[in-house]
Design a protein that fits this description.
The structure holds two protein chains of two kinds. Chain A is α+β, with helices and mostly antiparallel strands. Chain A has helices at residues 16-25, 31-39, 42-57, 72-90, 95-108, 110-130, 133-142, 295-324, 349-388, 392-430, 442-449, 459-480, 510-514, 516-540, 549-574, 581-599, 601-606, 612-630, 634-639, 645-648, 659-670, 681-688, 693-696, 703-710; strands at residues 3-4, 8-9, 153-156, 172-176, 181-185, 193-196, 205-214, 217-227, 239-243, 256-260, 263-266, 276-277, 283-284. Among the domains of chain A are: 149-291, Butyryl-CoA Dehydrogenase, subunit A, domain 2 (Beta Barrel); 459-648, Up-down Bundle (Butyryl-CoA Dehydrogenase, subunit A, domain 3); 680-706, no CATH class. Chain A has 24 helices and 13 strands. Chain A is globular, with a radius of gyration of 30 Å. The relative contact order of chain A is 0.10. By secondary structure, chain B is an alpha+beta fold. Chain B is built from 26 helices and 13 strands. In chain B, α3 crosses α5, α10 packs antiparallel against α12 and α13 crosses α16 (511-535). The longest helix of chain B is centred in the middle third of the chain and has 41 residues, at 346-386. The chains are: A alpha+beta, B alpha+beta. The interface between A and B is large, with 147 and 151 residues. Chain A: InterPro entries: ACOX_C_alpha1, Acyl-CoA_ox_N, Acyl-CoA_Oxase/DH_mid-dom, Acyl-CoA_Oxase/DH_mid-dom_sf, Acyl-CoA_oxidase, Acyl-CoA_oxidase_C, AcylCo_DH-like_C, AcylCoA_DH/ox_N_sf.
């Protein structure tokens, strides 16, 4: 039997597309309405759809499989073209619209997002956070930096020898009273600005973090706008810039290094909303040094949303593939049912246990990310108002709000970016060999992604940073009977759960595990007990917080889960499409039992949050039960992310599920089989057809040679 | 004010001196790294062989690692690897196969694409021919046609198909016997039967061993192997063969993986490999009595990947720990004159030192696996040559053991190595993300090890199932043969009834007791899993999760058993260090990650787990901390092979990064090749002008009239 359709086959091939179509036909979830939940509102969901449509049709912005074959140089050039294209949208989009656009671009081409973000997010946020309103007006509007026009900013914070510890940066800005200038200088190799996105080739200006030195006194790190290139895009004298070259990912970004050799800038190039130097060299310092780092907060918040979108994209690919791909017969019984098809891999318990936690995590992450996004918007407005109205009380309120935001965004950024990294990798492995092909998207996604765990606050440093004030609250509560306020107020209950109460289990039954409010409370108690344990250690270790580092990271993890779960529960409760609520509840339960409890099991067990017996029940009874309920709606759950084939850009992850034809089609289009000989063919053919070892040794080791060279016929000298 | 200081660079104030710190740290070493290397490699002889090869490879201008290669595109990588294959072929002619195998293992540390491209010919093609062909067939293809020395022929391994990976028995390519012409017709019946991922197929291979269903007189005899030529001696594709490049991958761009479609391609009957299965001239099929022995040819790859895991971990613990010595960040105490070295933070120690301990454990574990594999191969050859039934039976038992052990070590260790590369990268902060630190390429090249030659989950499920079945068998009173490496399961009854093995903190610090605890846990989980299978009507798939877990535990038990056995061989100060590493391995790689299981199964108690998490791991970190440089120097990896700016022996991280980067990207070129694209949008005209003022006041006025 020969079957000719689009290709000739001798036999009926597999038909993965009809599998996914059949499942899609049976969905009970309306993916359009479900997307309202994921994007926060119908309005926003529709805006996202409009933006997606625009970019999908855009000849420059749309991602294609060819993207996966680009070299570093090609990626750089393409990214520059995309930036130029984005600049045109920027001139007409509203702020929120453009923000959403960048977040979406982050799904299919994160380097464009970053390269634009370096100018708009970091450079301008730095000016906004540290400069006066007039300075902001000058650089961002008058000089048009906010439209990607005339000037292009980069963010000169990190140095070769200093990353996370911003206070220790060594570049100097020395005030020269005679000329009313600052002298910007890189004192030695360790102070070379390093990793500066956009510095290598794009940026004309840089916000430089440098130590303010006036009359030999060091006032700590402040910010300065330093021009790097003139309007002909040539480097200014005294400025040395280089490309830092190839990276694990994001090769489309021209990260560079900068050395300043006594570069002079006018005094008014210093950003002086909070810190000021007068003509005579008097220094006014800001009320809170941390305000200078507020530029980083926007990035952290954005990364939470990025994490949601990345997990959405990856689980969509992996789950669609899992529906179309068949492998082995049930329990390996090949002979039992001859002619029967192999099992769809989605139907294996192990496969479900590998993927469902990340599906649930994507849903939960969307809620948390939207909340933290709203919080930063409110907080920045509050601070702006306070400064505008010179209202000190409001300013202190804004500073308090920002401190909370530092904690919440730190906990979320670190844990969600880690979770997304793990998600990409697990989804890749779940697609077997095909997951390793570049055209299926995982490899580039992973390599581009993982820097999110490091930059703008290294995840471990953030983990310590967030965990520390929690333990300090506990210490304050017990040593000085201080009452804790804000999002950690639950710590005031600590006495009810420690010491002689420390043995008491909190989650007592499977019903408790499925009651998300109870799980959220259990997480609070886990934090109380862990924090209390840290306090006990701190008392005996000489008050050494560094020694508690590993525990602090763990506490931060619990805090992030707590934040996410609480917000998810709140959002589900207020969601207007009640028919979808049971599906959301189900994923919430899976997140609690299949992600939180598994992720931190040792910690939760050793803190007696639940018993070992109950934990076994969760694994043996609860998770298989929940999996069974999730399984029929997998297509609906992933379709609800509303990611188009362009955004997903994965041959095996397309909507139609026709995995084999799509994949072979992409491979052939990208690698024309007519070009069967490669540059290296000649090298190989020369090797295969090389002469024998004897011939190549010119027969110098042959029997003949041995005889000749060993002959004892040396002349004798008398 | 500071004075200008001229050393090799001009500085206006004192620069960091990480290289000084490295010298100081190195001076703490109180043992001989060479002696430690002998312990790690198992013998003085093996250590010497490796060091000799390191020296040759470190100096070889074609084979040595080079930071410039991190900038290679796919085509440059392919070409570089082809040139390296040629160079390696010359070593092969004089090394002999056993020694060459070691050499190939070593180059795999920094050029895994090279390793696999040669392995595809020698190990996959070659071992398939050896495992399935008659001695004369082996002699013909490997020696007479010189495939065994990478000459004339280049073989690839045509097993996986687009629609079929792990399930080899489900392959759909057909080999139909045509009695009229005495030929097999090789055919790809539909798209999913396209041979896919075939390393070397895209451009290198002249032949493939093709896994295809043998069809004779309409009957399907299942999957057998055939040598199928793909290209002629001018390297032109043969008619009926369609081949393409599968293109870009997550890593290993130096490997020309391809796809192959056969369209009624005819080969002579004698191209079938027929050590076990034969087809006569008249179409009579003889099926093999001992086909399972043919699978032993796949095991070499798994054993090699277990060893690769040790070496890649050695490479990156070296990089990360050297960086952690030189890099300073934050001051512990505001009064300190310098920031604190990363390695002096307990959290950083906890992120790095457990990987060092795991590397040591994997060194001895994989050495044992490698030695066992070599012995079994040798004994099997003797047994088959003598046709001695008893010896053949013993070899089958050994092969069965090796199946479980190699599957469990390959899957567990390649997973751990993937995680290790990533975690260690993160400990180097931003610098870890630079290609020139080595992590990125290593990770991307590495992770396919978790998937190929037996997907880790599939291998682990299979190993786990064997353990469950063995325990069930033992409990029914049928003991395992003492030859089997799992023969300790014969104590299953006693282990199930045992009291908590680790009752105190001291117990957790005794590797022998932890070994016992691990055995107990394995037996208990295997026992309950067995009961659950019986209860659910024999549905093994539902219990794949505990099966995977059992496989991981078995790997640790194997490595720890070897560690405990090998420990006494160490001399002097080494002994103390090795004991601490063994303790750390137990605490951080075994007891903590599986704490929930140890507690639930009552093999230990909460307090012990609490002590491990709260004290033991950190106390051991602090004890190991002063010797991390000596302990990584003991891997004896030369700079060119580590190929990492931040991981060099001298520890001069900043100058190495900066000078290295400058050498690759001269700052002289300060404008991008695409500078015009940048300035075009920066210096673009105002929007009104670009819209031809069609929205301006004049237009509004005129057009509204």
């Amino acid at each position: 039997m020969v079957i000719a359709k689009n290709t000739v086959s001798y036999e009926q091939g597999p038909d993965p597309a009809s599998l996914i179509a059949a499942e899609r036909a049976q969905q009970k979830i309306d993916p359009v309405k479900m997307n309202y939940f994921l994007e926060g509102s119908q309005e926003r969901s529709e805006e996202v759809a409009r933006l997606t449509e625009q970019m999908e049709r855009d000849p420059i912005l749309a991602a294609t499989p060819a993207y996966y074959d680009l070299s570093k140089e090609q990626e750089r050039e393409l990214t520059a073209k995309k930036i130029a294209r984005v600049a045109q949208y920027l001139e007409t989009n509203s702020f929120q619209e453009f923000q959403n656009r960048l977040s979406l671009i982050g799904v299919f081409d994160p380097q464009v997002g970053t390269r634009v973000g370096v100018n708009l997010g970091l450079f301008i946020s730095c000016i906004r956070g540290n400069g006066t309103f007039d300075q902001l007006e000058y650089w961002a509007l008058h000089k048009e930096a906010c439209y990607l026009k005339n000037i292009y900013g980069c963010f000169g914070m990190t140095e070769l020898a200093h990353g996370s510890n911003v206070m220790a940066l060594e570049t100097t800005a020395t005030f020269d009273k005679d000329t009313d200038e600052f002298v910007i200088n890189t004192p030695h190799i360790g102070a070379t600005k390093w990793w500066i996105g956009g510095a290598a080739h794009s940026a004309t200006h840089c916000t430089v973090y440098a130590r303010l030195i006036v009359d030999d006194e060091d006032y700590g790190v402040k910010t300065f706008v330093v021009p790097l290139r003139d309007s002909q895009h040539n480097l200014n004298p005294g400025v040395t810039v280089g490309d830092i070259g190839r990276k694990m990912g994001r090769d489309g970004i021209d990260n560079g290094w900068i050395q300043f050799s006594h570069v002079r800038i006018p005094r008014y190039f210093m950003l002086q909303k909070f810190a000021r130097v007068s003509r005579s060299g008097e220094v006014t310092l800001p009320p809170l040094e941390q305000l200078a780092y507020s530029a980083l907060l926007g990035g952290r918040v954005m990364m939470c949303l990025d994490s949601y979108r990345m997990m959405a994209r990856m689980t969509t690919i992996a789950l669609r593939y899992a529906i179309g791909r068949r492998q082995f017969h049930k329990n390996g019984n090949f002979d039992d049912d001859e002619g029967a098809k192999e099992v769809q891999i989605i139907d294996y318990a192990l496969h479900q246990k590998r993927l469902f936690p990340y599906l649930a995590a994507a849903y939960v992450a969307s809620a948390g990310a939207l909340k933290v996004e709203k919080t930063i918007f409110d907080t920045m407005s509050l601070l702006d108002d306070a400064v505008d109205q010179a209202d000190d009380e409001k300013l202190m309120e804004g500073i308090e709000a920002m401190k909370s935001l530092f904690i919440d965004s730190g906990a979320l950024k670190s844990n969600l970016t880690w979770l997304a990294a793990a998600c990409i990798d697990e989804c890749r492995q779940s697609c077997g060999g095909h997951g390793y092909s570049a055209y299926n998207g995982f490899g580039k996604a992973y390599n581009d992604w993982v820097v999110q765990c490091t930059w703008e606050g290294d995840n471990n440093i953030l983990g310590v940073f967030v965990g520390k004030p929690i333990v300090k609250h506990t210490i304050g509560h017990f040593e000085d009977e201080k009452v804790v306020k804000g999002s950690s107020a639950f710590l005031n209950d600590t006495k009810q759960f420690v010491e002689d109460k420390a043995e008491e289990y909190i989650l007592k039954s499977l019903d408790d595990v499925q009651d998300l409010s109870k799980v959220a409370r259990a997480l609070e108690i886990a934090i109380m007990r862990s924090s209390y344990a840290c306090y006990q250690q701190w008392k005996v270790n000489g008050e050494d917080f560094d020694a508690l580092g590993p525990d602090l990271v763990q506490i931060t993890r619990l805090k992030a889960h707590h934040y996410l779960l609480e917000e998810y529960v709140r959002r589900v409760a207020e969601f207007e499409h009640k028919d979808l609520v049971p599906y959301l509840d189900l994923l919430g339960k899976y997140y609690a039992a299949g992600m939180i409890l598994q992720h931190s099991s040792t910690y939760l067990l050793s803190n007696n949050i639940l018993s070992a017996k109950l934990f076994t029940q969760v694994n043996v009874e609860l998770l298989p039960k929940l999996s069974k309920e999730i399984r029929p709606n997998v297509v609906g759950y992933t379709d609800s992310f509303q990611l188009t084939d362009m955004m997903i850009n994965s041959a095996i992850g397309r909507y139609d599920g026709n995995i084999y034809e799509n994949y072979l089609g992409v491979v052939k289009a990208q690698n024309n089989p007519a070009n069967d000989k490669n540059k290296d063919t000649k090298i190989l053919v020369d090797m295969l057809n090389r002469g024998s070892l004897e011939a190549r040794d010119r027969y110098e080791k042959s029997f003949d040679a041995a005889e000749i060279l060993s002959a004892d016929d040396a002349p004798t000298f008398d | 004010m500071t004075k200008n200081r001229v050393t090799n660079l001009v500085s206006s104030c004192p620069e960091p001196t990480p290289q000084e710190q490295m010298r100081v740290e190195r001076s703490h070493t109180d043992f001989d790294p060479l002696a430690m290397n002998e312990w790690l490699e198992g013998s003085e002889e093996k250590s010497q062989e490796i060091l000799t090869m390191y020296q040759q490879l470190d100096r070889d201008p074609i084979l040595q690692g080079n930071p410039a290669h991190y900038d290679n595109g796919t085509h440059q990588d392919r070409e570089l690897v082809a040139a390296r294959i040629h160079q390696m072929a010359k070593y092969l002619e004089t090394d002999g196969l056993v020694k060459f195998w070691r050499r190939l293992n070593l180059v795999t540390i920094w050029d895994p694409s090279l390793g696999i491209r040669i392995s595809v010919n020698l190990a996959l093609f070659g071992n398939c021919v050896k495992g399935n062909g008659t001695p004369s067939q082996v002699n013909y293809w490997m020696n007479y046609k010189e495939a065994g020395t990478l000459k004339q022929l280049y073989g690839c391994f045509g097993m996986t198909e687009l629609g079929h990976g792990s399930n080899v028995a489900g392959c759909e390519t057909t080999a139909t016997f045509d009695e009229a012409t005495d030929e097999f017709i090789i055919n790809t019946p539909n798209i999913s039967a396209t041979k896919w991922w075939i390393g070397g197929a895209a451009h290198s291979a002249t032949h493939t061993v093709c896994y295809a269903r043998l069809i004779v007189k309409g009957k399907d005899y299942g999957v057998k192997t055939f040598v199928v030529p793909l290209r002629d001696s001018n390297h032109e594709l043969l008619p009926g063969i369609a081949i393409g490049d599968i293109g870009a991958k997550m890593g290993r761009s130096g490997v020309d993986n391809g796809w192959i479609q056969f369209s009624d391609f005819r080969i002579p009957r004698f191209n079938m490999l027929q050590k076990w299965c034969r087809v006569d001239r008249d179409g009579t099929v003889t099926l093999p009595p001992l086909e399972q022995l043919s699978y032993i040819s796949l095991l070499g790859g798994r054993v090699g990947m277990a060893t690769d895991s040790y070496r890649i971990l050695a490479r990156f613990t070296t990089v990360a720990l050297r960086y952690a010595i030189g890099r300073r960040q934050f001051k512990k105490n505001p009064k300190d004159s310098q920031e604190t070295a990363l390695i002096d933070y307990p959290l950083h120690q906890r992120r790095t030192i457990p990987w060092l301990a795991l590397t040591y454990a994997s060194a001895v574990g994989t050495n044992r696996l490698e030695q066992t594999h070599a012995r079994i191969l040798k004994e099997l050859d003797v047994a088959v040559a003598k046709d001695d039934k008893k010896l053949i039976h013993q070899s089958i038992l050994d092969t069965k053991s090796l199946f479980v052990d190699s599957g469990s070590l390959k899957s567990t260790l390649t997973w751990l190595a993937a995680e290790g590369i990533d975690q260690l990268r993160q400990t180097c902060g931003g610098q870890g993300y630079s290609s020139y630190s080595g992590f990125g390429k290593a990770y991307n090249d590495w992770v396919v090890q978790c998937t190929w030659e037996g997907d880790n989950n599939v291998l682990a499920m299979s190993a786990g199932k064997t353990i469950v079945n063995n325990v069930k068998q033992v409990l029914k009173g049928k003991l395992l043969d003492e030859r089997m490496s799992l023969a300790w399961l014969n104590d299953a009854k006693a282990l199930i009834d045992a009291k908590p093995v680790l009752a105190t903190k001291a117990d957790a610090l005794d590797p022998a007791k932890v070994l016992k605890a691990l055995q107990t846990l394995i037996v208990k989980i295997a026992y309950t899993t067995g009961l659950r299978v019986e209860a659910n009507g024999g549905d093994w798939d539902k219990l794949s999760f505990p099966r995977v877990k059992l496989s991981k535990l078995r790997c640790h038990q194997y490595c720890l058993e070897t560690f405990v056995t090998d420990l006494p061989k160490a001399q002097g100060a080494m002994k103390q260090h090795l004991l601490r590493l063994a303790q750390q391995y137990c605490a951080s790689s075994i007891l903590l990650p599986f704490a929930t299981d140890f507690v639930i199964n009552k093999v230990t108690v909460d307090e012990v787990i609490g002590a491990i998490d709260g004290e033991i791991i950190e106390d051991l970190d602090a004890l190991i901390r002063p010797y991390v440089i000596g302990l990584t120097d003991s891997f004896q990896m030369p700079d060119n092979l580590i190929n990492s700016f931040i991981g060099k022996y001298d520890g001069n991280i900043y100058e190495n990064i900066h000078n290295g980067t400058k050498a690759l990207y001269s700052p002289f070129n300060s404008q991008a090749p695409y500078n015009a694209a940048l300035t075009a949008f920066l210096n673009r005209a105002p929007r009104d002008e670009r819209l031809r003022f069609e929205r301006g006041d004049y237009a509004k006025e005129q057009l509204s009239k």
